Amino acid sequence: MTTTSHNVLPEELEDLVALFDVRGTDEPTPDAEREEALAAPRFGTVFTDHMARVSWRQEDGWLDRRVEKYGPLQLDPATAVLHYAQEIFEGMKAYKHADGSVWTFRPEANADRFARSAHRLALPALTVDDFIGSIAALVRTDRAWVPGGEDSSLYLRPFMFASEPFLGVRPAAEVEYLCIASPVGPYFAGGVKPVSIWVSQDYHRAGPGGTGNAKCGGNYAASLLPQTEAQQNGCDQVCFLDASTNSYLEELGGMNIFVVMDDGTVHTPELTGSILEGITRKSILQLVADRGHEVVERRISLAEIEAGLAGGSVREMFACGTAAVVTPVGRLASSNFDHTVADGEPGELTMAIRSELTDIQYGRARDRHGWMRRLA
Ligand code: PLP
Ligand code: COI
Fold first, then answer.
1. Is 263 in a helix, a strand, or coil?
2. Cβ-based burial of 57 (10 A; exposed 0-12, middle 13-18, buried ≥19)
3. Ligand 1 center to residue 322 CA distance, Å?
4. CA of 279 to the centre of ligand 1 (A)
5. Which bound ligand lies closest to the C-alpha atom of 323?
6. Predicted confidence band at 7 (pLDDT cuts at 50, 70, 90)?
7. Confidence check: pLDDT of 4 > 80
8. How high is the pLDDT of residue 151?
9. Pocket of ligand 1 (CB under 6 A)
10. Cα separation of 52 and 11, whole Å?
11. What is the mean pLDDT of residues 8-22?
12. 195-361: CATH homologous superfamily?
């Protein structure tokens, strides 16, 4: 399929936001309560006062663009998504800059991926304009909820699901798109400290021709049991191998993965169709290349990494994603091995890339690639 991506210009954004009818809540959270909620939010537990919403009907297309009070959805028990998981989502952040303005990072890339995910899940595509318009309309309405502290941001969760009450197995003729927002601090409770990773030998999250490169809820459901297994084995996150040969690294449940070799080259699993095309991954490939490192997207076997960890040729490993930003990996383990990554401490390049990326996102460094978009 093709997507018709284009950059949304600042002057165009006003018109896109104006399409959303703001039906503000008459019960906004009191200021003191909101400030308390913003002080140290645990990832994904606190939500703002509003949500953006657009409905789709097969015969009419997208309609009723609005921002309305955040609250429970009433669903018929036969609603298709509850039975067949026809659902997709995105993950993005809004960052407050020192002058109080609010920005987001490469939203067109999220809009494009959302459209690709929609295609794979037989859902209707939302235009880039509606995707970005909905986010800006919500962030402007709930601007007071964008936290200001270091490593804090307003996490944005656009999602779309089959809302038609119908038990037949076919693409739904009624669909809802919503975007909710949640003030967040660091994804991992310990802040930026190295995480340990369990390589699953028994489970895969995706296979050839499956939905691995779509951001659909089902992929995450499939990752929960192996993630639990990882935790039972004393690790923070699970890493999946490819389903065809059970020998190549793919990604974690919610993050892409990078390896830094002792010769300075930086490697990440190539996009095979079963890996999510991370926007953080893509941006890091650029930042690492800008620093003069050779970057290699290729198949990376577990055997090679195990040997490299044991022999010292693997110097650093890190995971990356919107929620996790750049997180050092300190240990890689499985049922038949347990390796510390170098000395187990955060790697130098890992932390330099993390700083460089967050400096751009928080407006502390020049946005030399034109990645940031002002929302409010
Ligand atoms: N891989 C998976 C499975 C994810 O859920 C995510 C998070 O969105 C990523 C990778 C990283 O993607 P991004 O950098 O676009 O957030
Ligand atoms: C993100 O990084 O935004 C994700 O969606 C990963 C996870 C929270 C599911």
1. coil
2. middle
3. 7
4. 7
5. 2
6. confident
7. no
8. 87
9. 91, 251, 254-256, 276, 278-281, 321-322
10. 21
11. 93
12. D-amino Acid Aminotransferase, subunit A, domain 2 (3.20.10.10)
